[in-house]
Request: fold
Amino acid sequence: MPPLAFSSQLINLFAALLLLLGFAMLTQRRILSLINLFALQGFVLVLSTAVVAYSTNQGHLYYSALLTLLLKVLFLPWILHRLIRALNVRWDVEPLINIPATMLIGIVLVIFAFNLATPISQIAGTITKSTLGIATATILLAFLMMITRRKAVSQVIGFLAMENGLFFAATSTTYGMPMVVELGIALDVLVATLIFGVFFFHIRETFESLDIHHLEKLKER
Amino acid sequence: MNVASGIVFQVLQSVLVVLIAPLMLGWVNQCRAWLQNRSGAGIWQPYKVLNKLFHKDAVLAYNASPLFRCTPYILFGCMWLAVGIVPVLATDLPFAPAADVIALVGLFALARVFISLAGMDVGTSFGTLGARREMMIGFLAEPALLMALFTASLISHSTSLPTIVDALGHRQFVIYPSMAFAAIAFLMVLLAENARIPIDNPSTHLELTMIHEAMILEYSARHLALIEWAASLKLTAYITIGIAMFLPWGIARAGDWFGLLIALAALVAKLALAGAGLALLETLSAKMRIFRAPEFLGTAFLLATLGMLTHFLLEV
Reply:
């Protein structure tokens, strides 16, 4: 195997780091660390997008990297930090399935995603083609996090991490989406987070807890 | 390769590592003291402890078997052999073909079996408790360690450490993302196997939490000294394996005397950095409950597995 170009190696490294951070978020018990890991994942995403932009001369990717930096590394974590301070929820997260079992399911998901992506990446022509499997795995891991968490805040972080994975998939397969779509998604995520923030307060006011299991009962109390 | 110079290198490396192993432990303790705003005992303290212990008379329990007496020597021998195999200063050592990484893991397992048996030998409850915990940690840590080593083996197509060092350190520089996973898994195993802080506290004698210290409670004098020395050798062996796999730059080839000087300087710098990093990690984290240890080591195993998967996805 001839060694890849240095930029491809860097992108592969960042892809691996994204996957690593996805796993770290899956196993993390504390919400505060979860938010910090999310911000870190966003930062790795910014770096990889910038490297892709530099190595393929796609100018618009610089803008999306900048957008990611502002939105996912600085603004959203700041909002989430403020939220958990206002809601006073720094507790340990109670997962539905215990952590080792979650990690085993995570490994199965990763194998599934890698197998799924291999035939697609073989016919792709981009320099980032081999990272599609990792992007898919990141999305599925974030899904898993949303499913296995009981508290609303960590589910929202799972949702945001999924968006990270989608964004990475977009850069790795097609060098990013059109700017209009990207802006639209960024706005969506932003608005979604704000609305979720309002929801948190409502859920807590109604049930005096952020455990979304209370939402399953439809009867008046 | 010149056989004579190879043997000289081998002897030089073995003696050097045995002599600096307590210094390594002293450096880690000193860094930890600095980070915790204490003045610390100085980096030479482990030598003073060893000297003190060697001058004392050994006390044995009246029902101690020969196994109990010979375990310290076996332990020390195992660890010394381990550091002889690892390419600390130079590759192509005459000892190196004797054992690859799998045999190295087996060597550590042999030492673990003997110290556990010795812990149970006298029949005190603490010894048995420590031995059982040690075996639990060991059986969880070993597969993770093997998987992390296999990731490096897959890249270099060999399980022998000198070849791994050659493939990673002496050829063209390539970033291997799978090694990032393997490195984290290896670090977690290193902490668990050497009784460092998230799993065990090396400086505690608090009865209910100790693992390593519980097994060696019955030892005194020269036996204890050998065990302490072996423990510091084990830490050094693990750190040098880590250096060989993840930071192999600067390790000389046998017979290259100028390279040896560079290798020595690089080794001292890397060991100093690794010790400071270890102390920082130990200061930042708190000891886990023993029932969290399977989760910790399970994570290490899964990360190592993930490293292998990433290798097949990205690097083949």
Observations:
- The mean pLDDT of chain A is 80.
